[in-house]
């Protein structure tokens, strides 16, 4: 469902995101409750129109946006990252991920070999991320992504960061690569490996070669994840356990050390 009002290429989208956030902060005022959200949307849409987002895209994108109370609640209470490593591994079902990951690696050997050949990233860490983020694509979220990202852009805690994500999401909608009513995770993460919108713009790959980047596709999601890791310093053939060179790329994926260690351990067990 392409928006013919916008003819941005993938490179053009990336350029707009980068240029847009080299400029002074948006004029719309952040808030810490739902009261000011409608006024913020009105002001933000004016700013976004001046930045090159089409009126049609803005009308479609914000038609069903509501203040995402659940997103704010989850943003304030990310308790799983405070668990011990063993507790986190148990909570995430690490043993199941390893078992299923080994089967998927064997079943999709050609795809993983092609990804490693192109990006230098082996199957293990990709399967670890895929399994932990969405249960290998079984559940990618049920939250209205536009509402989640717009709410976090309005919320004062991380307004600048999520304003960038909101611009990226609007550009993906304008390109026709994302539905305005797409459902994802509570912070606006998209697809089978849970990319934030700006990372779709910067690192998204058309892995199945159908002409678009769709992270609901496992081929696109896994190739994009490998591309992300390579861009964050992954070196072909290097180790990725804590203290080894490629662990830095895993640190780029998620800031929580317990999550980083889980990717490394699960990945190593899958790779054998």
TrEMBL record:
Transmembrane segments: none annotated. Pfam families: SLT_2. Residues 37-240 form the Transglycosylase SLT domain. InterPro entries: Lysozyme-like_dom_sf, MltB-like, SLT_2. Coiled coil: none annotated. Keywords: Signal. This is Lytic murein transglycosylase. Residues 1-27 form the signal peptide.
